[in-house]
Fold this protein.
Amino acid sequence: MVDNGKVGPIVRVQGVSRSFYNAAQEIQALREVDLSLERGNLVAIKGRSGSGKTTLLNIIGGLDRPTSGEVYFENHALGTLSESQLTNLRLQHIGFVFQSFSLLPTYSAFENVELILRIACLDRRERVRRAQHCLHLVGLKKWMQHRPSEMSGGQQQRVAIARALATRPNLILADEPTGELDTNTSHQIFSLFRKIVEHQKATILVTTHDPIIDEYADLLYDLKDGRLDSS
Ligand SMILES: Nc1ncnc2c1ncn2[C@@H]1O[C@H](COP(=O)(O)OP(=O)(O)O)[C@@H](O)[C@H]1O
Ligand SMILES: [Mg+2]
């Protein structure tokens, strides 16, 4: 993807609506959402279950397309990109963190992180260097050879964050990353996000219904029935 001098917001969401249709009715998951993500910010979208959080993240990450409206990533309209261009964009520029961690159970923490670097076609030396670096950064130096089942939920989520960082994305999308974690562990995850924003110059967009995010985010938005308001 062309780098346009990295000026302006990293992401612009313009008038994005997304409807789903089932047998009898239309579900409006997003209604005319506008959002700009400035670089180096930790931005939170709060909303209860069903408010459209996952739909919005999927559309920003190029995993789904809006019914109307457009998303610009580094000034490129995602609607003009093919599926394979979107796949490349995700692999090279966006890191994903999910509520359920999504780690491979038979792989060690190290292997889980290294795998994405294999997919990104990095050579072995660079894969090892980066996987170790990212696992150190999230505080898992001593846990690299452990499998997910041998780790706590918070540690597993930190492996997932290391994996999201490994490709050095400018944008990290985290969908309810603390949804399965207790309050103490949630504080650890959100302060790790602050550290990443401050030291790795990444932009993080996180969805949550956890009120403790207020202590960490640069900007907070509320999503309610598919409508976004600043809070
Ligand atoms: N693939 C889908 N098919 C039909 N309805 C969907 C689909 N994805 C989401 N929805 C509906 O869109 C609304 C928003 O869902 P979602 O984005 O998952 O909300 P959240 O992540 O905030 O819980 C909900 O009413 C949900 O049932
Ligand atoms: Mg969701």
About this structure: The mean pLDDT is 95. The chain is about 30% helix and 25% strand.
